[in-house]
Amino acid sequence: PQPNPQVGAAVKAADRAHVFHSWSAQELIDPLAVAGAEGSYFWDYEGKRYLDFTSGLVFTNIGYQHPKVVAAIQEQAATLSTFAPAFAIEARSEAARLIAERTPGDLDKIFFTNGGAEAVENATRMARLHTGRPKILSAYRSYHGATSTAINLTGDPRRWPNDIGAAGVVHFWAPFLYRSPFHAENERQECERALQHLEDTIAFEGPATIAAVILETIPGTAGIMTPPPGYLAGVREICDRYGIVFVLDEVMAGFGRTGKWFAADHYDVTPDLMTFAKGVNSGYVPLGGVAISSEIAETFARRPYPGGLTYSGHPLACAAAVATINVMEEEGIVEQAARIGETVLGPGLRELAERHPSVGEVRGTGVFWALELVKDRETREPLVPYNAAGTDNAPMAAFGATAKAHGLWPFINMNRTHVVPPCNVTEGEAKEGLAVLDMALSIADEHTV
Ligand code: PLP
């Protein structure tokens, strides 16, 4: 990267003057001006390079600037850069075919959106119309997006300022053994109690009032909690028993992140609706969608579906998806994610946990890992309080600053760091990142008891 601090200063000044950023107090942020990116790295205008262990917001599953995907977008722009959704367009047809061929079971119809939240909005709308019932059940410790229904379904504190109790949203506890809401001592207990809790919630809400249960197959931002064996199959069975639509949100976990095309493939479950976005085209052009079962598709076979978007299945986004999926096949990128998880990230993170008292738990699969940082391994007290801000958050801020100083851009959420590099991160890059994490964790260790 060529340093160009003057351009960097101008980019920053215009940003500060005019860009209104997500989730932020506008005067309290200091966004880094980014000059470029390639593969697993990006760099600033000073020429400082960072290894991106965040994949943006966990979406660059094939890394930045993959030449084949960039070329496909350029070609599509030259051929047909846009077209309205009511027409059959080659890039859209092909993207839908490639996605439907990979989604589990009979999820063979694809409704395209511009991102994940809109996918969740439409999946829940489909479930309500299909069942004629009003309520949607979702988990605490979840994130489903920032539009009105999606943020109210969300279980993390980003919901609170938006919490207008969206009509028909009910939260329940999903399994998370490390901080068990059921005081369970092992995975089998956690699974049984979580399923019983869901049954009880359904019984007391009234089964005939519930349209859908929505879960992230492996919750992402909320902590990468891989569900215990049997949990998702149990939810599937409960939904079937009560005629409830089962929605799996694979916006973050889908398209290779867990070392399989979809996280649902690890658990052998097929939902009725599955939402996706992010990795479908590595975020090169905004795209999301809902994969729909034949039964729900049938509901809208002779009755119009009352929803749509100007840019549903935008040709540039779909061309990027076609190229991304083909590149993932050709280059064995899903297998690469699985291999790096098994041979480098999993063992490497467990080894760090042995040496660093601040690491309470390591969990994950593929290129989807969380380190739970704690003050005290015995009590499991989080390194910073739930939803900490300001000085309360200082230990995590110090951890992050150390990583960045050594050229690693870490993903931090509350008391956790997530290790979520691109699916095609190399062994060398993964090891480089682990070495920096080692240094940053030494800073976190200073805050343990
Ligand atoms: N669902 C899940 C599981 C997510 O992780 C996200 C975003 O992080 C969303 C939905 C929302 O997606 P978007 O930000 O594209 O609207």
> Helix proportion of residues, in percent?
25-40%
Bound molecules: pyridoxal-5'-phosphate
Number of strands: 16
**Annotated CATH homologous superfamily of the largest domain:** Type I PLP-dependent aspartate aminotransferase-like (Major domain)
Residue stretches low in confidence (pLDDT < 50, at least 5 long) are: none
Average pLDDT rating: 97
Secondary-structure-based class equals alpha/beta
Q: What integer value in Å does the Rg equal?
A: 22 Å
Strand order of the largest sheet: 4-10-9-8-7-5-6
Number of domains: 2
Total of helices = 14
The termini sit apart by 42 Å
**Strand content bin:** 15-25%
General form: globular
CATH topology grouping of the largest domain: Aspartate Aminotransferase, domain 2
Text of the CATH class of the largest domain: Alpha Beta
Major beta sheet summary: 7 strands, mixed
Reading the helices and strands in chain order gives HEEEHHHEHEHEHEHEHEEHHHEEEHEEEH
CATH architectural category of the largest domain: 3-Layer(aba) Sandwich
What does this structure look like?
It comes from Streptomyces kaempferi. The chain has 14 helices and 16 strands. With 449 residues, it is of the alpha/beta class. It folds into two domains: 5-65 and 332-445, Aspartate Aminotransferase, domain 1; 67-330, Type I PLP-dependent aspartate aminotransferase-like (Major domain) (Aspartate Aminotransferase, domain 2). A seven-stranded mixed β-sheet has the order 4-10-9-8-7-5-6, sandwiched between helices. Strand 2 (41-44) and strand 3 (49-52) form a beta hairpin. The longest helix has 23 residues, at 333-355. It is globular and about 60 Å long. Pyridoxal-5'-phosphate binds next to helix 5.
